[in-house]
Design brief:
The protein is of the alpha/beta class and about 400 residues long. It has 17 helices and 15 strands. The strands form two sheets. The protein has an eight-stranded mixed beta sheet, sandwiched between helices. The protein has a seven-stranded parallel beta sheet with strand order 3-4-2-5-6-1-7, sandwiched between helices. α7 packs across α9. It starts with a helix and ends in an 18-residue tail after the last strand.
């Protein structure tokens, strides 16, 4: 078998490590980014969720780390704890499979800082975590920023927003001017691009062709429901689908606990994750979902950034996002690695009016469905079909 990753400049041990993980063919974003990253170029990589962006930067990092020097050489910044830990786990998987000696440590907020200080005494060569906590440890002189050669901004659109921009810029400013900057996201807004250009003079922009839209193996359907009836309609929908495992999205994080409580009241095993929840609670919810102890994971868009849970067959939108790119992020949680998936949205009449625009922008077809006697049926006339929570007319 040809070593396709080897042709990109990836060493034999790492290529074998990828093969052990079932990864033998590089994705489009990996093919385009890896050679540039190995040359030390600053790169912006834009590619849809689930298309292999993490490996596009982790592989060059693994290749460029000098394992004979015990000091921080690369930093990967992520906007959420979940994404940071996912990146760290993937790096550890590569390290183990390839038999390499690259050392790494996760450094995230809301975790005992003294424990992290102790882990830094082991002299990790790669740090993965949040900009705020990493900056704090640099300022405390627990991390020597002068030895950092590579900085990655994963989900750069979030890292360069108003909440994170100052701490991210401060981390970068503490490093040497010769360091390499790598930026990745599924979407790159003009404002984000302007910020990137302030951080680096020369940057290669890579947009992976054919991977900036919703993957083609995902079906998109919707049911009409009044806002007050959505939980009841959702309960009936789950019953008709034989209680599938799925990820549930709502727009406001403050409503997650209420939504979970309502689902639990109906006997549906669900848990929620949101930005303000405790790290231990988020960890338990994710572990319960991965293990199958709960059926549904309810999340806000911010909390779901970086979630990489395999084999999620359904994405449920209890509320339709206003931004089509947010819909793209949500849909990207299913249909991964060539598998099929389904996105089902519960929409009000007003939300339904936005669907043609959504479909046009994302190049997807959204089919209408309704529930009839516990069976999910296709509607041939979306504008006229009865809503899923319809009631019988009273006899006159």
């Amino acid at each position: 078998m040809n070593n396709v990753f080897g042709e990109l400049g990836i060493s034999e041990p790492l290529s074998k490590g990828l093969s052990l993980a079932g990864i033998t063919v590089p994705t489009t974003i990996q093919k385009q980014v890896i050679p540039l990253a190995l040359l030390g170029k600053d790169v912006i990589g834009k590619s849809a969720t689930g298309t292999g962006k993490t490996l596009a930067y982790l592989l060059p990092i693994m290749e460029k780390i000098d394992t004979t020097i015990r000091q921080v050489q690369a930093v990967v910044l992520a906007p959420t704890h979940e994404l940071a830990m996912q990146i760290y786990r993937q790096l550890e998987m590569l390290n183990k499979n390839a038999g390499m000696a690259v050392t790494a440590a996760p450094i995230i907020g809301s975790v005992n800082i003294q424990r992290q200080v102790e882990s830094l005494k082991e002299k990790p060569q790669v740090i993965v975590g949040s900009s705020g906590r990493i900056l704090e440890l640099i300022q405390k002189k627990k991390i020597n920023a002068q030895t950092i050669k590579i900085i990655v901004l994963d989900e750069v659109d979030r890292l360069l927003d108003d909440n994170n921009l100052e701490s991210v810029k401060a981390v970068i400013k503490t490093t040497q001017r010769e360091r390499q900057l790598l930026f990745f996201s599924a979407t790159i807004a003009p404002a984000t691009l302007d910020c990137v250009k302030q951080l680096t003079q020369e940057v290669e922009f890579i947009a992976a062709e054919g991977q900036t839209e919703v993957p083609p193996d995902i079906t998109h359907t919707y049911l009409l429901a009044e806002q007050r009836d959505k939980i009841e309609v959702f309960r009936k929908l789950l019953a008709s689908l034989k209680a599938p495992r799925g990820l549930v999205f709502i727009n406001k994080s403050e409503a997650i606990e209420i939504t979970v409580a309502k689902l639990n009241y109906h006997g549906i095993k669900a848990a929620g994750i949101f930005g303000a929840s405790k790290q231990a609670d988020r960890k338990k919810a994710l572990e319960d979902f991965r293990s199958g102890r709960i059926q549904l994971l309810v999340a806000s868009d911010l909390a779901a950034r970086g979630l990489d849970i395999p084999d999620i067959p359904f994405i449920f939108n209890l509320e339709l996002p206003e931004d089509p790119q947010v819909y793209l992020h949500r849909a990207g949680r299913t249909g991964r690695a060539g598998k099929s998936g389904c996105v089902i949205s519960l929409v009000t009449r007003r939300e339904e009016e936005t669907l043609p625009r959504l479909g046009k922008i994302l190049h997807i077809s959204l089919s209408a469905q309704y529930l009839s006697r516990g069976i999910l049926r296709e509607s041939t006339r979306p504008s006229n079909y009865p809503p899923a929570n319809r009631t019988k007319k009273k006899k006159e």
